[in-house]
Amino acid sequence: MKSPLILRDPDVTKKLLEAMIDTPGGKRTVSRLARTCRAISEPALNVLWRDLDSLIPIIGLFPATLLKKVRKPGLGLSKEPAEEDWTKIMRYGERVRSVLYNETANNVSPSIFPMLAQNRPREYMLPNLLHLTWKVETLSVLDYCAMFLNPTIESLQFELGPTRFPNLNKILGDACSRLNLTSFSIISPASLPDTFTVMLSSQKSLQKVALVAPGALSSGVGRWIAFLPELKSLQLDLSARTLTAVEGFFDELPSHSGDSTPNSVATTDSGVFSGEELDFSEIRLKSAMRDSKAGFSSLRHIHLTGDVANIAVFLRHFSIPLTQLDLVIEDPPDNAEWMELSYLISERFGSSLHSLRISATATSKFNDLVRSTSRGEPTVSRLALANLQPLLALRRLDIDLPESINFIGDDIEALAHACPNLEELKLCPLARFPVQSGPPKLTLEQLAPLTEHCRRLHTLSVPVNARRAGPSVLDSQSNSSDTIRRLHVGHSWINDSLHVSILLSHLAPYLDNLKWFHDKNRPGFIESNARGWEKVADTLPHLQGIRLTERKAMIATLPSLNIISTPQLPQPVPIDTVEKGVMASVSLVHEGVLARPLTTSSGVQWRPSTVDESVEMHPELASVSIDAAPRTTETAVEAVVTVSDEFVEALPETVAASVDARPPSVSKSVEAMILNPLEGKKSIFHLSSHPLLFPVFSLISFTYRVLFAYPISIPIRMLHVIFDNMPTIIRRPPASTNSDISMDSLQVRQS
């Protein structure tokens, strides 16, 4: 699907998105558009990231793992970022065109700047940055602005705190040597550096200069500013300065006559030789010389802050065609000084001035705030506009003062005659009129001169006392304006909503936007007035419709009314006439335009790209070995042959006594029980069958025979001792064997 026609033109799309982002909640709307459609994503992101009022959006592009708190990126990073962590910052940083850093906001920790300076992947974080505003109060943070001073910077603004900045010379010297600025601004309570004009002498392309610091009114600065060839806007602070100091700004300009002559403004010489000289400097400064100074050839906008007298002295040196004048004055001003200033503005810039804005200084606003919070009655004064001379080119007049808020009908009438081409008029729209001070002095009926003489007026903001109008206003058709579309009445008073609606439908029949303050928590709010204006907003559209219908009907009946009311004119007297012909042939010119299209011959050599590729294939092999050795068990069997020793003893019969010891069964029946310690069991075997014991038993048998052979009288006790000392391995066999021999119970019998 094709994109809408309006989105096919990049310039129109950009203008549309810029208008959307300036509305309330515009950034949220544009961000949603960027996430909705790919066709509009790029231009929407460019508008969103073009102007940043803080560094928080840039810091928030770091991964969440690096941030100390994800919801508060300004607290800093928990560790140093790696190169891949800068990807989003590098991509979105190319869209940024303007950055504002404000240290007093305390939303970005200064500890993050060393990490950014040491780990940034490129020299400049925002390569396409054009405007940089740096508001600091500490020395260290001022040095870190160097990482944002790209060669593409066109506008540079410093707002310094009350401390002294000795490193300012270094920063300015580096910036002026590398940058080609079109706008430069410095706001500081400390004095400008001594080499200020020397460092900025190379900046020949400056179009806007704002100097709000001590030393800005020196003659050297004035000479440097006066001869800037492309300077279009100048802002200076004249507060707390004497008239002599203001005049010193123009001392080194070529047209100054010097202080040695009596005609000099700053000299005290009266021109008369007298013994006692009086100080005429104040008188001469107030009258000031009429000759304008050389220079300032391209200057079109001046912004001045200070007393009305200082502003008047400063403006007397200009006769250039100013188009915009912004004045920040002390409120309330002195009446004589204000009349002189208003007359001077009309005289010098009446034919060229397009916009005039008058507002109050911060001191005046603070004093008004103190008065509003106290229980005392508010102070109200009048700012006279009756001395305004014709300002034929003025398109916009904006007056916003906290104390000089009263205007009367004469001021409106003088303004309507002096500025017939006004398109937008604001007369203290934020002024408060509590019950203690009473209603505004200006009534809604007294705005009729504006609707009658200012035929281009489309926006009007002024608090009034809305009352019933007189018949003189309602009967005049010239008081009705076809151009007024917007009306802001602020804290205006109202007592009769119906008659106010009738009057508005007559003065502004095409009014489509009516606003007033309806916030209950706003200072100066009166609920009855808010309800009255709400009723007017409800009834006004219906009355406007009736009013326009009646006018259309009246216009339709005008031709018939003219015929009826036309009087009979007398017949003209015939006059002698002469016919004369005039050759009125038209001169023709034949012109031709040769439209020859530009053609370009181009050839493209096409050749297919071939690639030789080979694939080497190897089957995947796996070596597997199996240990198939059979398991073997070695078993040994001890086979011992049982040897039996048997013999037969044949003894002759003898007379000697015989002992029945049962010798034949000695070798067969003697057994031994041996305890096997390894197996934990007893083994029983025959002693006579063991080959190692055979000699022992043979000896026993031999002894036994000797005893029988030789009837020697041996004591039985001796035999008992001999047999008891035999080895302990000989044990008595079990009782179940008939051939067992008990050595302890051996008995010797005598036959």
| Average pLDDT level | 78
Distance between termini? 149 Å
Strand order of the largest sheet: 1-2-3-4-5-6-7-8-9-10-12-14-15-17-19
Largest sheet: 15 strands, parallel
Topology, number of strands: 21
InterPro entries: LRR_dom_sf
Organism: Lentinula lateritia
Protein name: F-box domain-containing protein
Overview of this protein structure:
The protein has 751 residues and is of the alpha/beta class. 30% of the residues lie in helices and 12% in strands. The strands form four sheets. Strands 1-2-3-4-5-6-7-8-9-10-12-14-15-17-19 form a 15-stranded parallel sheet. Helix 1 (10-21) packs across helix 2.
Please describe the topology of this protein.
Layout: H1 10-21, H2 26-34, H3 38-48, E1 51-52, H4 56-59, H5 87-93, E2 98-102, H6 112-119, E3 131-136, H7 139-143, E4 155-160, H8 168-178, E5 183-187, H9 196-199, E6 208-212, H10 219-226, E7 233-237, H11 243-247, H12 281-287, E8 301-306, H13 308-315, E9 324-329, H14 335-349, E10 355-360, H15 362-373, E11 381-382, E12 396-400, E13 404-406, H16 409-418, E14 424-427, H17 448-453, E15 459-461, E16 465-466, H18 471-474, E17 486-488, E18 493-494, H19 497-507, E19 513-515, H20 527-556, H21 558-565, H22 666-669, E20 671-676, E21 681-686, H23 694-709, H24 716-724
Parallel strand pairs: 1-2, 2-3, 3-4, 4-5, 5-6, 6-7, 7-8, 8-9, 9-10, 10-12, 11-13, 12-14, 14-15, 15-17, 16-18, 17-19
Antiparallel strand pairs: 20-21
